[in-house]
Amino acid sequence: MNPIMSRETLQTEELVYAPAVLILSEDLYPRKLEVVREYIQNASDAIDAYSAVADELEDETELQIKVSIQGRSLLIFDNGIGMDGEDVSKLRRIAYSEKKAGKEAGYKGIGRLAGIAVAQKLKISSTSYGDAKLHHFEFRAQDMREDVSEKKKQTIQETASQVIERHTTLWDDEIDPKEHYTIVEMRGISKNCQDLLEVKVLKEYIGEVAPVEFSREFSWGAKISQKIRQNVPDYSPKRIYLSTGDGDRVRVFKPFVDEMGIAEPQFIDVDDPANPNDVLAYCWYASKGQSILNKTRPVGRIFTVDGGDTDERQRFAGLVYKLFGFSIGDRTLPLRSLWPKSSPRALWFTGEIHIIDKDVLPTTDRSDFVETEARRRLYNAASNAIPAHLNRLAQRISDDRKAFDDSTKTRDKFKELKDKLQNGEV
After folding, report:
1. Per-residue pLDDT for 3 more than 50?
2. Residue 122's closest CA among 65, 164, 78, 80?
């Protein structure tokens, strides 16, 4: 490590005061489920890193991520590259990261401590291949919160590093040097974070935001996956499993299934207007389907699924951005960034916009992209390619549906007239 950079980083950290740690943890994740996304991003990067060397190590182990609910605790395991003792000790550092922007899903370093926002205690244990030690890091988050609050009342000011040092512990255990994994344990999940312990909620959330495969229960899944693999260089879906304390384990897939009644998907290349050979993003989309003339055809209505209120039924309506397979923002972001004005017909479709241009970087909270020339280029190109295409298609769907409805009414009238003639009523 560069010693000059190390001193500069440490000097910067000394300017961060203890209350900032609370603000960072509490305000960065308004929706607490996003904490799970942060750790799955880290796990995904670790698996990608290990995949690059697995052949050299002659290791054919299935690489996977496991999310486990155990009482009021949530555990996230991956058997990726793992961390050595130095890496684990750096967990005490505020927003420290050696990840590279544009090459890994997460890169700002803040998410490693995300668990302190939702749990009384955060524990991270990790080892890398060839390391005979399992390295542990424990952060007593609830004790820290109480400590900081009490110091604030007493007008005692401390740096974040001082407080973190006092409320964290590092230690090692012996382990088989062939092991390589990381386990994140969030112990004592807060009562206001109940979604983190709900199997159904977690499963759908992970399927929506994480880089997972389509289910075999979705007939169009294989076609979409093939097209994405052909057009998105970094497409790398992960095996993610969700298990509960009673032993049930399910593999997590994207939430699309045939029961949703989805018409055949279509695809759009988002080319850079200044360089048509440069593809900035790749989009797949589909609409609700209806059997017309013995074929499932698109129908013109908002994309809905089973659910309670309107928002729940429309939760998959619209497109969502994907970067390294992870969702950026929700399904309102493309509406706000690509359509010049409100367009209800945009909600007739569901789908994903996979970002290929890795100069496009996410904001810290992953709600948008950092305002750069790359983002401007992406938004301009996508706004030229996607809305016009979908608007034209929506109009054609509407016209076709009207023609079908009109022909159905005419047919029914002829049938009614025929029946009257046969019955001598005319």
Report:
1. no
2. 164
